[in-house]
## 1
Amino acid sequence: RAKFEKPQATRIMAVTNQKGGVGKTTTTVNIAAALAKHGMNVLVIDSDPQGNASTALGIEHHSDVASIYDILLGGMSIAEVTEQSKEGPSLRVVPATIELAGAEIELVNVDDRERRLKVALDEYLSTTSDRGEERVDYVLIDCPPSLGLLTINAMVAATEVFIPIQCEYYALEGLSQLLNNINLVKNSMNEVLEISTILLTMFDRRTNLSNEVALDVREHFPDATLNTKIPRSVRISEAPSFQQTVITYDPASPGAIAYEQASLEIAKRGAK
Ligand code: ADP
Ligand code: MG
């Protein structure tokens, strides 16, 4: 088994791309599960009202569940809301419920609306030993498919931006808007923010299009793009219906192996 070293400081990654269906949630839960499998202490924050990351990690998210909404708008702490995932004790989750759908609008009129998640996360990360818990090594924040206040909160709280890109036509379209937003946040609220990681998803090596998109993305982001590409795989798309990641659902499948390989690359490269 490949050796994963713990990062020097907690790495906080906003997994974002304003396009829907590009593999943000799938990437968040599978990278998190792979890192946890290799000894990392991981927190996933589900910040999409759909709650798909919560589902994939085996966490209930009906409307009575304490969630990210209660952190952003209800004054609750992250420690009060986190739950252990089905993947094991070293992967914990802040669930999202449908209540979050109203948060973009409700946040508009509150103080410090862009920093609510950062304040809560800083408090949580600095008090792990008070609670008798180990330091968190990785935080992955699954963002909704928009560039609104939920995504801004994730980018303000994060130290790194992680962009999954689907290998399809138009893959790079709309990305300049995302890059503008990242720069806005970096220049006004979070100077350490960097695009550290780009992962090509749903790659089909038999098609010219997939290969062209992969080359194109690598040309635009030579440093951030991981060598590993995630193949299109039925096992990956089936796993959530068993409330599992593909890492536990079918660890020997090509999709699981690719996600493990990608997580090893992330761990080896460290924070930039
Ligand atoms: P996003 O969070 O960006 O909206 P998802 O992670 O939910 O995207 O993925 C969109 C859909 O594509 C889901 O149904 C998911 O199961 C499927 N999917 C994601 N990655 C793969 C893959 N590598 N192979 C096959 N299906 C995938
Ligand atoms: Mg999603």
Note: The chain has one domain: 11-269.
## 2
Amino acid sequence: MADIIQLLPDHVANQIAAGEVVQRPASVVKELVENAVDAGSTVIQLIIKGAGKTLIQVVDNGKGMSERDMLLSVQRHATSKIRTAEDLFQLHTKGFRGEALASIAAIAHLEISTREEDNEVGIQLKIEGSTINDPKPIACEKGTSIAVKNLFFNIPARRNFLKSDTVELRHIIDEFHRIALAHPDIHFDFFHNNSELFKLPPSNLRQRIVNVFGGKTNEKLVPIKEDTDVVKINGFISKPAFTKKTRGQQFFFVNNRFVKNSYLHHAVSSAFEGLLKPGHHPGYFIFLEVDPSSIDINIHPTKTEVKFDEDQAMYAILRSTVKHSLGQFNVAPVLDFDR
Ligand code: ADP
Ligand code: MG
């Protein structure tokens, strides 16, 4: 029998990987904004047109890229964030898989403009399908701008599968909330079809929550805080009187990364037991800080799931911390310790 196995060409492999990383416009927003955060930016602009189906652009004032790095950044498994397998247990960045830009370039038109502080001019790279233009000099601010156009231009099934603009924009806003809440010290601007949806100046966490969800949120927040060997807990929970029938405002962040975790969610809900109106859900903005070597975030390409070594201890500590704050709130309504 003849040998029949072949290594796939890069662009095919990238397109396959893209299927997991990029489900919809919101996935691109997440990857680009996370890269901007990892680049040490203090100001990040998100510019969207047509709910991300026409344009997704992220402009940052971070450290920028050299020409070599810009060319490498769109290769698969190319990253500046880890070097060795051991680094996976000491993650301090949002990214580490080195596949977002390669995936996005495989399924959309990509335009990168970037300038490092020490360089007088910037450089620009355009990738449209298999056409990769030579980088050319461009006048731009320090930092990086990445524009993604015509998402899924070469995968009609995916493009047709996208939901209405209202639904896709909702997903984008959800991703934006998650990253804006995790980084209150960063200034964010978010434009959709030329109108500004969010303008978030640098602030503390409480102020950021209020700027994102509106002035009325302030009186609803109860601070929580705990410091143990296993985990440091910070953030806010909603007062029982202000809980909602929707599950909208429920956020866990582990080492400043938004994660979904039904086990920890249960810990919080059970702490609210007996305090909630029937059918109501607690709101929470909970930041868990743990030793990076005690978690595994590399469970899914989107990195929104996490495995804890000590999940039972986490559950117990979280539950009692929330209970404690709810109790304290009843006797001391003005208690506050801002992050
Ligand atoms: P990862 O974030 O996992 O490293 P990406 O494909 O998202 O992988 O990005 C590849 C590399 O490109 C990053 O490691 C980083 O060095 C560089 N990069 C991407 N976006 C930016 C940005 N906005 N500013 C500076 N460098 C960036
Ligand atoms: Mg990345």
Note: The chain has nine helices and 16 strands.
